[in-house]
Each structure stands twice: as structure tokens, then as C-alpha cells.
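User: Batch of two.

Assistant: Item 1 of 2:
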Amino acid sequence: MGTKEKKKAEAWAQAKRQCRLSEREIQMAKQLGMTPKSLIKNIPTPAQMWKLPVKEWIRSLYFEKFGGDDNDIPHL
């Protein structure tokens, strides 16, 4: 694994930790074309009560774009 791929993997691992995401949600975010930085930036602060948690936000965007329900999420 090269330096670039290693940094990319570390960024995804950090986003997974900070946003409390599962592997399935990371896969959905990648399919939506999101970056780790965009996920971390969208973590709601206490003043942003209107904002969905990142986990729910990814799921809502995924189902809006690709349709289906929770059982249609591709498994790893």
C-alpha cells in the first residue's frame, strides 16, 4: 500500500470513528461520492438540533438516491 492509499484509509478510519459509522454506512457514503472530510464536517453540534446525525443522514441520502429499504443495502 502506497503513502496516498494509506492516508486515504486513515482518513476513512478517522471518519468512521468520529461519526460512529459501520462498514455498511462507510460503503454507502463512498457510493454517494462523499469524502471523509465531508462526513466529519457534517457532525451536528449541540446548537444544531435540526441536523440529523451523520449515520442517519447518509442512510436517508442513500435511500433517496437508490431507493429500497434497509434490507437492500449491499453487504460487505
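Item 2 of 2:
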Amino acid sequence: MRKEQRRRIRIELVLPAWIYTEDKSFSTETKNLSLKGVLLNLKHNRVNLIKGERYKIIISPGGGVEIKVIGKFIDQTERGASFDFIKMDEVSFRNLFNIIRFYAPDPDLVKEELINPAFDVKDLDL
């Protein structure tokens, strides 16, 4: 069994989501979510994703709120398709942060994640 290597709090949460490719959009739902990524349920959708490619993802927690991110496709397994968040605007980050804090077992730990960035800006290829 592989040891868990996640450094970010991940919450199990089902929310409507959409993935946008160059020519299509696909509706799906989240399975779990963190400040740095998402696992999407793609079992019912036939989406041909390319590892390492970036995709626009919109997550809708309701009430007209949308979390808009650019995510790099990491892998797809029987559990779902995993994406690493690369870019999002401030409003989307604030909404994501509030959702993670609300559902996290210890909201203070989510705040502490902001002290240790998940990436180094100089390593981003934006």
C-alpha cells in the first residue's frame, strides 16, 4: 500500500462542475477538493483528457457562486480524474478557501496552509 503524500487538507464534497476542452464542455461533479486541486467524477462522461494539459474547470457550489480555475490534468483512475490547480482569480480563491474551511474537520489548519505555499511562483509556466 502506498503512503499518503498529500500536504493539503482535502474534503469529500460533491458539487456540480464543468470541464472545458478546446471544442466542448462536459458536466461532471467533484468527489474531493483542496486548495490545490480537485478529483472529478468522470465515470459517466467520455472525456479524452491529455496528461499535463491545462483545462478550464468551473465548480459551482450554488447561489450563483462559481469557482473558475485552470487545472493541469494529472491522472485518471477508477476513482476519478485528478487536476492540480495552476491559476485562479482572487474571488474564486476566496470562495474555494471558505468552502474548504467550512467542511474541514479543523478550519484553523486550512488557514495555516496559507503560510506554506503549495508551489513556488518562479516554477509556474503561466
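The longest helix spans residues 90-103.
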